[in-house]
């Protein structure tokens, strides 16, 4: 039986909360619940938003009752078996050159590593997309290897360029657009993670897998001027 | 020939908004949409549009624009604002209108919408609506993400906003009567979802205290100055979804109400959520206003939502023709006398 709480966020949203943690097994439950609930196409459910630790369910209370939704959630979670991962895999080029990685050196020294080791560790694993949030197309990826886990910068930057690759705690992400940022920046990607002219807008979805492919500064610049795109592909390994 | 409203002065923050962008929060896209959806609907209904049509959201100071269409029916709803239709760009003064009334402007005439009073936002709807392509299902502007509305941004001088109609319909001018835009004496909140992160005294202070809407307030967040809240176990939580009206409390302890352009997720505990029925009134509150909160149950909140939706449904029945000929004062007075004559006759008690 899964431990969770259903909390009210006002009169038009319920939060199915699995607890204050970054955990792959929790994420699997959140995403499975979202998938099942969305598939039911319940009249009055406006949208669901998966996060690292919870699922927000936005609803029209004059069409569907909170109690009814809670029962649906309980029913789904009670019968939740191991869900095969249905996400896609996406390779994203990243340039870790110091010119585009203002915090690489400092991260390396704080982690007692050489900058090249930081790059090696960061780019050698497959990451899980926990959620999209904060900005359009911004994917929260984990888990960052524990060797690279650092608290946020004490002083956030007022503005960082689009494509910046950040790390913080157990998570890493690429910022789709210029934004204030408190994470450590260790690279930059030439890939657009958000494009409102596309029907979907966002390159990634919660549940996708991401691998970072290191590229040279020259390749980065060429990719920027050529406007290359990354294409997520269905994962056939499952 | 294209029909546009050409912006001469943009006002403080004029954006295209409708009821918002739903269905994309899971991609990190905020809902955006009108801060005061009741007034947005009222403005649309006054010019005969569907209530959910996109309109201009005007904050504090309105735009001045020139009509480059044969004619257009317009209406403002929301805050009081001085609305003036000038004969041309050089005219010193023109015909004045108030909010909650439709009016017609002809080609070459200049419409000037001055400062708002009473509340912060007012909506300007144009008959037929603006000819703007929706992005992800909505014409609402999300400025931070450069998404939707007019080129993903607030209006600037020189913008030419395309109209769907080039000639006004042969409709009369209309007035909306008895729309209650009064603010609740206390904004009602449902506690949570993270009220457990705060001490009981803090929650009591929050509900008993008075807050002033701070100057950093924008379409994303309403910053409040007043009693601070104390976290019992730190102010960082693993990111969670953010509903409209959520009141988050960062480390400094001052509550922030998250509004239309709020981020979809965030990592601060949320002590309470303003109920949906009170959000339009909160959305039109002004910087410097004093507000306070009162706890409500989810059931009470949903009952109040039902009442608000009934009031919204009743808006079309509150629309009355103005019956006024601008150019002819005598006709205007006669019309008014005639109307009051009929009204008196109808109100006279039967003596039979």
List the helices and strands and how they pair.
The complex is a heterodimer of chains A (238) and B (352).
Chain A: E1 5-8, E2 13-17, H1 24-40, E3 45-50, E4 54-59, H2 66-78, E5 88-95, H3 104-110, H4 115-123, E6 126-132, E7 139-142, E8 157-160, E9 164-168, E10 171-174, E11 179-181, E12 184-188, E13 209-215, H5 217-226, E14 233-234
Parallel strand pairs in A: 5-13
Antiparallel strand pairs in A: 1-2, 2-4, 3-4, 5-14, 6-7, 6-13, 8-11, 9-10, 9-12
Helix pairs in contact in A: 1-2
Chain B: E1 4-9, E2 14-17, H1 37-46, E3 55-59, E4 64-68, E5 71-86, E6 95-97, E7 101-106, E8 110-126, E9 160-162, E10 174-176, E11 187-191, H2 200-208, E12 211-213, E13 221-225, E14 240-241, E15 246-248, E16 256-258, E17 265-266, E18 270-274, H3 279-283, E19 290-291, E20 293-295, H4 298-313, E21 319-321, H5 329-347
Parallel strand pairs in B: 11-20
Antiparallel strand pairs in B: 1-4, 1-9, 2-3, 3-8, 4-8, 5-6, 5-7, 5-8, 10-21, 11-18, 12-13, 12-19, 13-16, 14-17, 15-16, 15-18
What does this molecule look like?
- The complex is a heterodimer of chains A (238) and B (352).
- Chain A has 238 residues and is an alpha+beta fold.
- Chain A has two domains: 74 residues, Gyrase A, domain 2; 147 residues, Cyclophilin (Beta Barrel), CATH 2.40.100.
- Chain A is built from five helices and 14 strands.
- Chain A has a five-stranded mixed β-sheet. Chain A has a four-stranded antiparallel β-sheet with strand order 1-2-4-3, covered by helices on one side. Chain A has a three-stranded antiparallel β-sheet with strand order 10-9-12.
- In chain A, helix 1 packs across helix 2.
- With 352 residues, chain B is an alpha+beta fold.
- Chain B has three domains: 173 residues, no CATH class; 126 residues, Beta Barrel (Cyclophilin); 26 residues, no CATH class.
- Chain B has five helices and 21 strands.
- In chain B, strands 1, 2, 3, 4, 5, 6, 7, 8 and 9 form a nine-stranded antiparallel β-sheet that branches.
- The longest helix of chain B is centred in the C-terminal third of the chain and has 19 residues.
- The radius of gyration of chain B is 22 Å and the shape is elongated.
- The N and C termini of chain B lie far apart (63 Å).
- Chains A and B meet through strand 2, strand 3 and strand 4 of A and strand 14, strand 17, strand 18 and helix 4 of B.
